[in-house]
Amino acid sequence: MKTILYILLFNISAISFAQDPILFDTDWFLMELIVDGANVNIPNNGEIGNVPLDFMQFGLSTQPCNLLNMEIGDLTNSDFTIISAVILEFNCSFPETYDFEEVYFMDFFHFNMMGLTFNYVLEIGANDTRMLTITNTEGDIAIYGNAALSVDDNLVSKVSIYPNPVKDKLLLSSKTALGNIKIKTFNIEGKLLGTQNVVFKKETSIDVSGLSSGIYFLEIEDGTGKTEVKKLIKE
Questions:
Q1: Sheet containing 192-200: which strands, arranged edge to edge?
Q2: 120 has which bridge partners?
Q3: Confidence at residue 157, expressed as pLDDT on a 0 to 100 scale
Q4: Quick check: bond before 163 cis, omega within 30?
Q5: Domains of the chain by range and CATH?
Q6: What is the sign, positive or negative, of the torsion defined by CA atoms of 62, 109, 152, 2?
Q7: Helix, coil or strand: residue 230
Q8: Residue-wise pLDDT tens digits, 143-156
Q9: pLDDT below 50 — which residues of the chain?
Q10: Tell me, what's the pLDDT at 19?
Q11: For residue 82, what pLDDT is reported?
Q12: What tens digit of pLDDT does each residue of 171-210 get?
């Protein structure tokens, strides 16, 4: 994995914000990016592997390959405003890198349109699983977790769940057959609610009708022991 460069671009006097320390103390990695209602493919191509996100007191940086540094202000426990932004370019030349960064930097963060406010939600799940959901003014969503999930290292990162929010039946799909998988359901407090063993042939479903409305976490484990955590919203 290439070395991640964090460069402090802003020299600003100290300001007191109402901040959750978890936001700054956690190493965040992009898990899902949803723009215009569609999941955006996160490449794993030698230039992009894991996509980190780093919060500083007055700044925010993220680096798929090139580095996007943003100055933030008006940071509260639910939102922040991007005041200014700059892209630091490295030797990134793959077409899929360019396509992804155009969507991530331009369509989601709108780095060339300053003064926009982004909403964020912090959630703590099982085994200190942390999730950060950032929503822009157009309703696009970026979901980050506190574990690096590379496609090469984690087979179940290919699993998608839908619909989400869900009422009764949750569908799980993958482009490849994963064989026997184990699905554990945790509530927002991290309590294990149940475990299911499922034979996964590209698509399967589980019954969630017995869950009360709220937020849950699914820990999906494949036959090799690799796991991924998905956030589930039950209507």
A1: 192-200, 179-187, 214-221, 227-234
A2: 134
A3: 52
A4: yes
A5: 21-145 (2.40.128.270), 155-234 (2.60.40.3080)
A6: negative
A7: strand
A8: 999 875 444 444 44
A9: 1-18, 149-156
A10: 59
A11: 94
A12: 988 877 778 888 988 876 667 899 999 888 778 889 999 9
Query: What is 55-109 written as a DSSP string?
Result: E-SSEEEE-SSSEEEEEEES--SSEEEEEEEEEE--S---HHHHHHHIIIIIIIS
For residues 85 and 9, is the Cβ–Cβ distance under 8 A? no
Place of tokens 């700044």: 59
Q: What is the pLDDT of residue 204?
A: 86
Reported as type and span, the H/E element at residue 185 is strand 179-187
CB 90 within 8 A of CB 129: no
Is 50 exposed, middle or buried (CB count within 10 Å of its CB: 0-12, 13-18, 19+)?
Answer: buried
- Pairwise CA distance, residues 140 & 108, whole Å: 7
Residue 152 backbone phi and psi in degrees, to 5: -70, -30
Q: CA-CA distance, 58 to 102, in Å (whole number)?
A: 24
Quick one: pLDDT at residue 188? 67
HSE-CB for 165 with a 13 A CA cutoff: 9
Q: Does the predicted TM-score (pTM) go above 0.70? A: no
Residue type, 48: I
189 in Cβ contact with 119 (< 8 Å): no
Beta bridge partners of 55: 60
